[in-house]
Write a structure and sequence with these properties.
mainly alpha; 7 helices
Length: 157
Amino acid sequence: MKPHRLTLTNSLVIGYGLHQKMDHFFSPRAATQAELEEYHDPDYVDFLRRVGVGSGLMKEGQDCFNFGEDCPVFDGLYDFVRQYSGASLVAARKLAQSTTDIAINWSGGLHHAKKSEASGFCYINDIVLAILELLRYYPRVLYIDIDIHHGDGVEHA
């Protein structure tokens, strides 16, 4: 998902007054590196932390971590993945602690990211991180992907 789409989504939610129908609005903290590494390979997470436009790491990104046209590098990438992943983790925790019945992360659902590589504009698989968090509280988690195409990263996890 491209970051500018999140601004567009937020504008639509506010424009249609949907935010007035929500009981709570949260600004969650960013996920920590350790939280990202609950599923993702530490070398991959470290690469995400170091890479940026002009960082000279594009060859490594293409060769090792599937970066390219479908998964471009942009400035602020690591902060972006930490923020959307943190939002999914907060949502999972609120559900697990029964402080909410419904939790939505507009920026989440990046279901193509693999353990050690980006895929299909997905860098960190926040869904897998949230499922792992829910499995700390529940013996099973039902995941239903309503996207138009296959969530292969979640399946591979």
